[in-house]
Amino acid sequence: MKLRLQRMLWLLAGWLCLLLALIGALLPVMPTTVFVLMAAACFGRSSPALLHWLHHHPRLGPPLLQWQRYHGMTARTKAVALGTVALSFSFSIYATLQQPWLTALLLLVWAALSLWMWRLPKIPATSACCAMLDSKS
């Protein structure tokens, strides 16, 4: 019974992460990829069928497989991600200029996130293509 409850909680967490990823795809201030990665981890503990579906999803599957196999991203993906982060943090910082401590905190988080992302390995586009082709099988 305890195992079944754990599995249901992981499943619920996976769906919640997927919902947050969908919201993140629509809102510039919320991440998408992080929530897709978390959904995959949750589905991996609760539902092999849903994990399989996520891996083979035409939009979500290829980046997920790239991350799981290479722990990096293509140069194009990295550029888009860094640009999106810069844009969303710029809006947030502008909105908090009246609160210097919050502005400083946002700048610190932005710098840390950008540095982490910048240091991730760049995978060749051919590896990304291979991950996409492998996900079709």
UniProtKB/TrEMBL annotation:
Keywords: Membrane, Transmembrane, Transmembrane helix. The chain crosses the membrane at residues 75-95, 101-118. InterPro entries: DUF454 (IPR007401). Pfam families: DUF454. This is YbaN family protein. It comes from Vogesella indigofera (Pseudomonas indigofera).
